[in-house]
Every structure is written in C-alpha cells, then in structure tokens.
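Field log, afternoon session.

UNIT: design team B
ACTIVITY: writing a sequence onto a fixed backbone
BACKBONE:
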C-alpha cells in the first residue's frame, strides 16, 4: 500500500517536471494538452491501480478477517469437543475405578465362598467317614444280635425238649438272684417252698 502511494507521488512529480520543461521550451498548447491528457491518463491509471490494489487489500483483509473468525470458531469447537471428551474420559475413569472396586469386592467374596466350600467339603468327608463307620458298626451289632437271638432260641428249645425250666434263686444276703436250670418238678417244689416261707 505504501509502495503504491510512493510510486504515485513519484509519477506526479515527474509529470510536473515535464510540464515545466515543456512550458519553458515553448511547446504549443495542443501538444501540451495532449501531454497533459496523457499524463492525466497515466495518473488515472496509477490511481485506478492504486484503488484496485487498495480494494484488493481490503478484500484480502476481509478474507483474512473471515478466515480468522472461522479459525476462532473452529478453535472454540475443538475446545468444546476436547472439554466434552475430557468429561467423558473422567466419567469413564470413575466408572472403571468403581468397576475395579466392585471386581475386587467380588473376588474377595468369591475367595471367602471358596474357603467356606472347601471347609464344608472337608466336614462333609469327615461326617461321611464317621457315618460309614457307624453304619459298619451298626451292621456288625445287628449281626451279633441276630446271632445271640438265634443262640437264645436254640437254648430255649433245648431246655424245653429236656423238660427243664429256668428259675431265679435269691441269695440269702439279698444280692441279685441267680438263674438256675431245674426240672419242672423241682421248679414247682421251689415255688411251693418259697410260697410257704413268704
């Protein structure tokens, strides 16, 4: 811009000098008029170029202004997107921390449940062994009971076949009575004697 103004001033000064020189040399007015018109055309051309350049500069400034506004607008949009992204990132971090804490709690709970399950398994195995031992003992006692009952039945059968009976003989000192195997007649005799003594 300043360069154009400087060039315009130089051209005007040159035109003035030429005009003064022609006037001093006695050049005719027509020629001087043609020269003046030519100079004016040149000046107008320079002015037009200057105005055109000025307009171009103004247009350029307007374009730059629009570009700057657009750039600022884009910067604001980017900043807003960045802010939203930071907020979303912070929320994700919070959620991740919360999920991590929940996972830690669940892991602890799972470990406790696994320990309890292992303890229950050990207790169950122990109880199962005890139950199996009791069952074996019970089966053994049942077999022994059956054997004893069979023996008693055989004894009673033999006693009956021999015509004998079992009687209780009380001790004189009052201790527990003893069982005695006697014939039916002796049993009746003992019964009658005890009845008479009573």
């Amino acid at each position: 811009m300043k360069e154009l103004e400087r060039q315009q001033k130089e051209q005007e000064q040159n035109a003035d000098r030429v005009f003064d020189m022609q006037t001093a040399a006695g050049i005719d007015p027509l020629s001087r008029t043609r020269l003046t018109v030519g100079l004016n055309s040149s000046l107008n051309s320079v002015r037009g170029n200057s105005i055109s350049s000025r307009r171009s500069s103004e247009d350029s400034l307007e374009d730059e202004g629009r570009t700057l506004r657009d750039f600022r607008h884009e910067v604001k949009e980017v900043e807003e997107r960045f802010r939203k992204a930071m907020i979303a990132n912070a929320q994700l971090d919070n959620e991740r921390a919360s999920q991590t804490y929940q996972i830690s709690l669940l892991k602890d709970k799972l470990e406790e449940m696994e320990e309890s399950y292992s303890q229950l398994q050990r207790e169950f195995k122990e109880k199962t062994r005890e139950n199996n031992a009791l069952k074996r003992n019970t089966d053994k006692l049942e077999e022994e009971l059956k054997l004893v009952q069979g023996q008693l039945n055989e004894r009673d059968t033999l006693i009956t076949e021999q015509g004998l009976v079992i009687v209780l003989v009380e001790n004189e000192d009052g201790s527990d009575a003893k069982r005695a195997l006697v014939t039916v007649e002796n049993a009746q005799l003992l019964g009658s004697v005890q009845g008479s003594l009573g």
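LOG NOTE: DSSP finds three helices and two strands in the chain.
NEXT ACTIVITY: expression trials, pending approval
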